[in-house]
């Protein structure tokens, strides 16, 4: 249940939400999922059952596509979460429904592509969808501040995962499709990033603490996917989404945009949270470097 302080903050941020909603509507291009799918390749599965050799995607590309799609499939849970936290009134409610409508296109177009091109085992994919959606997604007791901080990181991470998956497929059709999806995710990230910027002006210390909490406990929304850890490792090994990307392309640009380490006038708890973030980033960078060195040695050994 949203507390009185949270309601007050949402009220203070409502003009910013309204302005960024209008900005989003001006920039968001209408696009049709059916125009990105090569329908002429479609065949009945009853007449020709699926076999692995029919896919134009490598094993890792299939895994990445599956993880990205199953993440999008959990949209009903995400909608419930943000509608509960932000409400369904004023600009907040308009944004919640607009965001949901746009996100819905992603799973539509990605699944249609995979089915038409026979890119992945349709039975395994459907079972994965059922598993993921039956588990749902629960953000816990996140405050609105923590929510907008989390989704800023999450939308940017998702954008990069889609974009890199498209490139990795080496299929121009898939790359065009996922580039289009990534463009939506980028606009969603900007909406939330700008709200965090405004929150830093209204409640700087509380917002810094929210950013720190979400940054240091961050998990992708697809964490509940069956065998997610192994699939995420294979995606990381392929360079689709790994610690280096998370550090350099997600966390760092957002903190730079918010001038996180330059803010003044913070209380003692916020200063401590910011110091903790500094230590966390150093450890993350060191761990990313270790994994990079291991990957380079493995590649060298394989080529030899």
Automatic annotation (TrEMBL):
One of its GO terms (biological process) is fatty acid biosynthetic process. Binds 2 iron ions per subunit. Gene3D superfamilies: Ribonucleotide Reductase, subunit A. It comes from the Bacteria. InterPro entries: Fatty_acid_desaturase-2, Ferritin-like_SF, RNR-like. Its cofactor is Fe cation; Fe(2+). Keywords: Fatty acid biosynthesis, Fatty acid metabolism, Iron, Lipid biosynthesis, Lipid metabolism, Metal-binding, Oxidoreductase. One of its GO terms (cellular component) is cytosol. Fe cation 2 binds at residues 103, 155, 185, 188. GO terms for molecular function: metal ion binding; stearoyl-[ACP] desaturase activity. The keyword Metal-binding applies. Fe cation 1 binds at residues 72, 103, 106, 185. Homodimer. Belongs to the fatty acid desaturase type 2 family. This is Fatty acid desaturase type 2.
């Amino acid at each position: 249940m949203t507390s009185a302080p949270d309601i007050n903050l949402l009220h203070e941020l409502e003009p910013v939400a309204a302005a960024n909603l209008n900005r989003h509507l001006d920039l968001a291009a209408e696009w049709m999922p059916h125009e990105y799918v090569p329908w002429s390749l479609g065949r009945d599965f009853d007449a020709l059952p699926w076999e692995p050799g029919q896919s134009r995607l490598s094993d890792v590309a299939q895994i990445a596509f599956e993880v990205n799609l199953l993440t999008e499939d959990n949209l009903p849970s995400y909608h419930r979460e943000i509608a509960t936290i932000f409400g369904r009134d004023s600009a907040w409610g308009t944004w919640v429904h607009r965001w949901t409508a746009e996100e819905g296109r992603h799973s539509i177009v990605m699944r249609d592509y995979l089915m038409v091109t026979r890119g992945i085992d349709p039975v395994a994919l459907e079972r994965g969808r059922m598993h993921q959606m039956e588990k749902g997604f629960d953000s816990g007791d996140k405050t609105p501040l923590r929510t907008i901080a989390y989704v800023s990181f999450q939308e940017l991470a998702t954008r990069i995962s889609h974009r890199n998956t498209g490139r990795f497929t080496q299929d121009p059709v898939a790359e065009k499709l996922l580039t289009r999806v990534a463009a939506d995710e980028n606009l969603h990230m900007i909406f939330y990033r700008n709200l965090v910027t405004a929150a830093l002006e209204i409640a700087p210390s509380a917002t810094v603490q929210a950013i720190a909490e979400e940054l240091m406990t961050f998990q992708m929304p697809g964490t509940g996917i069956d065998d997610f850890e192994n699939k995420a490792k294979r995606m990381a090994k392929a360079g689709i989404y790994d610690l280096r990307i998370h550090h350099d392309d997600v966390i760092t640009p957002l903190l730079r945009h918010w001038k996180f380490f330059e803010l003044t006038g913070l209380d003692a708890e916020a200063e401590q949270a910011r110091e903790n973030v500094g230590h966390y980033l150093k450890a993350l960078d060191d761990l990313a470097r270790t994994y990079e060195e291991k990957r380079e040695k493995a590649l060298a050994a394989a080529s030899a």
